[in-house]
Each structure stands twice: as structure tokens, then as C-alpha cells.
Amino acid sequence: MNGYKVLLVDDDAAICKVIKRALKLENIEIIYASNGEEAYSLVRTQIFDLVILDVSLGDTDGFQVLKKIRTEGNDVPIIFLSGNQHENDKILALGMGADDYITKPFSIFLLVAKIKAHLRRGDKIKEHQTSLKKIIQGPFILNTETFQLFKNEKEVFLSSKEIMLMKFFMENPNIVFSKDQIYEKVWNNSIVDDNTIMVYMRHLRKKLEDDPKNPKFFQTVWGIGYKFNNFIK
């Protein structure tokens, strides 16, 4: 299963070693985090196809990490690992947005089978969205064939570069990108012009925010860059 990237969040080195070895045999890339703060930071700045999240972490618990991820609108599949056999914990995790719950000790073969099943399901969802030729995020719909953008079903007219920037953000919601990353992905150029990006972000806010001076969708993350927030309360 080439091309997949999984985040493994667990402070048990022995279990991590077993999981990493098993997924490596499936050609799945593994990124490791040993605590909740590190995991949350990685999820905000990178794109993962799946997260394996242990309930017991050194600095927090898996429930708090899950809550933060889902609160930001990130729907990455999450498999919980727990040594707790209590049914209430399973119900709580699934109710908070976990996609699966596996208790320790577990069969590594069962875990790998579940991971592969969730990855296949994610592929089908992506294929369905692609076949519709639309990207839908919050109140926005982008037709990737005609490059028309709609907000609350009303068309908003953008320039070609504004459309490409919006497409990039809609394909990568709730992830913080540096100016370097945005310039490389949208402008196909590694030479960053801070002023250019600032101007285009100002244009998007003016055309798409309800209150451009207090943006909710296009947020500045000071010291890092920008993110597109598709989850507005």
C-alpha cells in the first residue's frame, strides 16, 4: 500500500516498534509522536491518511487530542488503542469521533487489517469526491472543472491565481502552511515573495469573509503562516 502516511501516537516504545515494523512491511510511511502536544502539532501541519492514537499519554490523554483534532474539523480516520476494557470508554471515544477502538493486548495482524480497511475506505471517499468534480468545505463549493467558486450557493468571482490559492486551501483544510510552502505549491516557485502572498490573502478575505477585519476562514498563524479553517461554529 504505497503512498500512505500514518501518524502513530503512543509513549510505549515496545508497542511502537512492533506497529512500525508491521506497517513498514506494507510500505506505509510512519510518523511517530510520543505525546499529545507533539501529535496535535503534527496533525495541524502535515497531512495524514490515518492516526493511531493511544489513550494514555504522558502529558494528556487520547480523548483530549481527539477532541482538539475534531474541533478543528479534521476528519482524518483515528484508531484508538487502549488497555481499558470498559465499554463506557469505547462508547465515549466513538461518540467523540474515533473511527475504531482496539483494546490491548491486541493482534498486530488485526490492527494492520483494520488500518488497511480504513485506508481503502478513505480512498473510496476521495474517489467519489473527485468524480463529482467538486471540492466542498464549509459554505464553499469549488467546481474543479469550470473553476467556479460558490459561497452559500452564490458564485464569487476570483482571479485565476485566487482560484488556485483557494483550491490549495480547500484541498488542505485546517492545516497550517508557511509562506514558503504556499508559494511553492501555488506559484510553483521556491523563491518567496512575502508581499505577494499577503496581497492575495487580503483579496481572499475581502471577497470571502463576512468580516474581512475579523477573518474566520483565512487565519494568520503568527510566526508560521496561514491556514484555511473550514469548521466555523
UniProtKB/TrEMBL annotation:
Location of the DNA-binding region in this protein: 132-230
Molecular function in Gene Ontology: phosphorelay response regulator activity; transcription cis-regulatory region binding
GO biological process, one term: regulation of DNA-templated transcription
All residue ranges annotated as the Response regulatory domain in the record: 5-119
GO cellular component, one term: cytosol
SMART domains according to UniProt: REC, Trans_reg_C
Domain of life (superkingdom): Bacteria
Domain OmpR/PhoB-type: 132-230
Keywords on record: DNA-binding, Phosphoprotein, Two-component regulatory system
Pfam families in the record: Response_reg, Trans_reg_C
Signal peptide (residue range): none
4-aspartylphosphate, modified sites: D54
Protein name: Two component transcriptional regulator, winged helix family
Organism from which the protein derives: Ilyobacter polytropus (strain ATCC 51220 / DSM 2926 / LMG 16218 / CuHBu1)
